[in-house]
């Protein structure tokens, strides 16, 4: 646990030191759980967004994008269920005065049980080697079976309590499990109560006539209310999808863990409209498709897992999370949900407008079902950044800090380094930048010895360093150094564009899916 905390502190420190993420309003001592993306962070975030958009929209003929407004008519949120049901169970510790989500306390407890089962599995794997049958072991080993059954029973009881709004039983469960305040160890809890997560605001010139509005807690509803607009103007046929990226706002009970849980965040969502009865087939399709997309970034298959929901949201008939192994353990990265026809029917009821698809083949109309994929851009940023940050011990015993960002996402694809600041080398370096900058984000670095510049670019996450030396003047070749392997090769200046394209072009990465 201490090592995890140290690693996480290193992530936060590195993000600030190298211009990725700053505390917001820092000169005024900051604002809790609010962050600004710096000069490198905004580029990484943009590249992640574009990588998602190309895979989700550009490569699918039947998926289009929109950009709906943050402010929406307040009845939107009544129809969607957010006014009445967008709550989290809140619990306070009487001694520490700390506030927590009751369900998260229970889920964290269950994660510890799951990790005990995983340790037993790893012991057996080491003992039996290639002969190890994990499935058989999980189903027959008494300890593992007991751990997993206990976890299942706890989560099912919690889900039942939340679904039935039996908050007294949720508190009783916390007390029976002897769950303590994570920071102080106190078990002196208040009753559990519901807390609505939406931010309210006003629209109007005076308090007397102002309309109550909400900052949107999700981007999905902007897609649903525009379903017919997009379908008719785009002549879309079922199945088809509508995608959107944008800001959402939630008054989280506990906003913590850096940019993992914030009150202002960015979502990347796609709502896929299907024929009723086909939704579970498409649900399975998008589960696998989205996992493959994540794996294409090369962060390691072992860092992802599915977590099927015990407690379903009010709109879903199936739901799973793609969880990622963050510095603080496995947590939700992306959700895939079968939302049924809840949203469109609810908006039909509250608006009085039909939101149906006319099928010319059957000469009939129906309300489509929806399969949703929703990923938090900030969480994905944290996943990529934290897993890429590494400390390496080199052959000579020295160490280096390197940010091994996927090259396709890196803020700068290459740094151009003149070996010395004279003899015409800076001028050649500038010529190279002027040529490459049309296709790639590149930077110029001439300060310090070239070895120190390599280390600086390693820490910044720059995949390639291109060094201009005296031989360049003779044969127009340069040395290109790979960040991850530290290997160097001599290449012609004329070949740099093609070489970088092979390494960083989005198409070459997405083809791996």
Textual characterization of the structure:
- The chain folds into three domains: 246 residues, BirA Bifunctional Protein, domain 2 (2-Layer Sandwich), CATH 3.30.930.10; 124 residues, Herpes Virus-1, CATH 3.30.40; 100 residues, Rossmann fold, CATH 3.40.50.
- The chain is built from 18 helices and 23 strands.
- A seven-stranded mixed beta sheet has the order 3-9-10-16-13-12-11. Strands 20-19-21-22-23 form a five-stranded mixed beta sheet, sandwiched between helices.
- α2 crosses α13.
Query: Largest sheet at a glance?
Result: 7 strands, mixed
Mean pLDDT: 93
Strand content: 15-25%
Task: Spell out the CATH superfamily of the largest domain.
Answer: Bira Bifunctional Protein, Domain 2
**Gyration radius, in Å:** 26 Å
CATH architecture of the largest domain: 2-Layer Sandwich
Structural class call reads alpha+beta
CATH fold-level assignment of the largest domain: BirA Bifunctional Protein, domain 2
Number of strands: 23
- Helix content bin: 40-55%
Strand order, main sheet: write it out: 3-9-10-16-13-12-11
Uncertain regions spanning at least 5 consecutive residues: none
What's the helix count? 18
- Work out the count of structural domains: 3
Q: How many angstroms does the end-to-end distance come to?
A: 34 Å
The CATH class of the largest domain, by name, is: Alpha Beta
The coarse overall form would be: globular
């Amino acid at each position: 646990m201490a090592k995890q905390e140290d690693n996480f502190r290193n992530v936060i420190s590195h993000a600030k030191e190298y211009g990725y993420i700053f505390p917001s309003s820092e000169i005024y001592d900051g604002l809790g759980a609010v962050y600004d993306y710096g000069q490198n962070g905004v580029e990484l975030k943009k590249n992640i967004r574009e990588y998602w958009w190309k895979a989700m929209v550009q490569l699918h003929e039947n998926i289009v994008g929109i950009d709906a407004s943050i402010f929406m008519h307040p009845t939107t949120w009544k129809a969607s269920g957010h006014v009445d049901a967008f709550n989290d169970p809140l619990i306070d510790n009487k001694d520490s005065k700390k506030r927590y989500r009751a369900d998260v306390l229970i889920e964290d407890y269950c994660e510890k049980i799951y990790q005990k089962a995983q340790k037993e599995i790893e012991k057996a794997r080491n003992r039996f080697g290639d002969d190890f049958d994990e499935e058989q072991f999980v189903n027959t080993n008494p300890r593992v079976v007991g751990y997993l059954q206990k976890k299942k029973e706890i989560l099912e009881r919690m889900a039942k309590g939340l679904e039935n709004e039996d908050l007294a039983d949720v508190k009783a469960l916390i007390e029976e499990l002897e769950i303590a305040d994570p920071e102080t160890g106190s078990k002196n809890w208040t009753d559990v109560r519901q807390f609505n997560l939406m931010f309210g605001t006003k629209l109007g010139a005076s308090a007397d006539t102002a309309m109550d509005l909400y900052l949107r807690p999700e981007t999905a509803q902007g897609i649903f209310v525009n379903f017919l607009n997009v379908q008719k103007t785009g002549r879309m046929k079922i199945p088809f999808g509508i995608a959107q990226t944008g800001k959402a706002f939630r008054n989280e009970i506990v906003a913590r863990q850096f940019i993992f849980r914030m009150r202002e965040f960015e979502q990347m969502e796609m709502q896929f409209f299907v024929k009723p009865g086909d939704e579970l087939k498409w649900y399975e399709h998008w589960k696998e498709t989205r996992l493959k997309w994540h794996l294409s970034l090369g962060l390691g298959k072992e860092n992802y897992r599915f977590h099927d929901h015990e407690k379903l949201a009010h709109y879903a008939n199936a739901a799973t999370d793609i969880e990622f192994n963050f510095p603080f353990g496995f947590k939700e990265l992306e959700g895939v949900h079968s939302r049924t026809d809840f949203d469109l029917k609810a908006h039909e009821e509250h608006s009085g407008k039909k939101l149906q698809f006319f099928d010319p083949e059957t000469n009939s109309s129906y309300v489509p079902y929806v399969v949703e994929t929703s990923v938090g851009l900030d969480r994905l940023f944290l996943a990529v950044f934290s897993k890429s940050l590494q400390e390496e011990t080199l052959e000579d015993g020295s160490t280096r800090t390197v940010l091994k960002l996927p090259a396709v996402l890196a803020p700068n694809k290459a740094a151009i380094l003149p070996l010395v600041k004279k003899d015409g080398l800076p001028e050649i370096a500038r010529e190279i930048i002027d040529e490459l900058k049309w296709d790639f984000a590149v930077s110029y670095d001439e300060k310090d010895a070239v070895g120190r510049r390599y280390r600086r670019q390693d820490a910044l996450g720059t995949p390639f360093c291109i060094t201009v030396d005296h031989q360049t003047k003779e044969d127009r070749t340069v040395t290109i150094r790979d960040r991850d392997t530290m290997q160097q090769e001599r290449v012609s200046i004329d070949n740099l564009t093609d070489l970088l394209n092979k390494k960083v072009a989005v198409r070459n990465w997405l083809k791996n899916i």
